[in-house]
Amino acid sequence: MSHIAQLPYAFGGPLGCAQLKQTPADFQVEEILSYPLTGQGEHLWLWVEKVGQNTDWVAQQLAKLANIRLRDIGFAGLKDRHGITRQWFSLYLPGQADPAWAQWQIEGVTILSSTRHQRKLQTGGLKGNRFIIHLREVTADPAQIDARLQQMAVAGVPNYYGPQRFGRNEHNLVMAQRLFAGELTRLRPAQRSLYISAARSFLFNQVLAERVRQGSWNQACLGDVFQLEGSTKWFADDASADLAQRVQEYDLHPTGPLVGVEPSPATSVALQLETAVLQDYQTWCQGLYALQLKTGRRALRLNAQAVSWHWLQEAEQSMPDLVIQFELAAGQYATVWLREAVELS
What we know:
345 residues, alpha+beta, Pseudouridine synthase, 27% helix, globular
């Protein structure tokens, strides 16, 4: 059983089951940039819709067609191949006119538009993603699902890293274990980064899981480190009188550790909890320390925005379908949000 399946729920567990990704149109995701594009500059930005293709492969095809190096292609993140995804790619074309991109033929890919900008699109360079998800044959009472979705939209859910982070059958965690054991000495940088990220994400999930069990994932604990809503900036508990209220008002979120070489900025109760959880994973922690990774933090709470949904039921259907729309910040997972309402298959 995957560790994801064992992570505790915030609201008592899923109310029923639903089928996800029966067709590409059932899972649609669209990037939301955090800044406007200027229309000028050395980087050509392409707004791309892809179906059934992964992001790395699309980047390779664009590099070939534009006759540039793969390193001169930018994209914000990897998007699921099993769906319809719309995302930006940047191409570094200094002193060059726009290529005839409208004539490019890439299987499963449609280039929708283009513009120019002064900078390359960096990994993680997004405000977030907009989702439209069609869940089929929902086996729960619609009224109960409606109430649960409303609860999730208001209160948020635990901000676990989702299964995509860990690979099929959590292969990335297996490889991380081998890496820390000294068994993998020749790895491409991208592979190495993937396995290291999976390990840090797993450790974060374990700390968050304990906060969920204790009922403190959405509350300020003594010694917590906080993240501002809509930002990746964080600060340690400074004993301000209004911290707990700001957490309740969703202006701040408590955070968990992304293990690195510097000591955790948490103190007191929060640090004691983190230390107790991570004690069982000292081999991994020591491996991360040795890599000299910068210590980071991630919000414990995920707050979806612009949440709406409606039910569909054809005459021949015994169970209804549910179509949900919402927006998540960059680095948050749609399946993590949905798991609090239904078990996905």
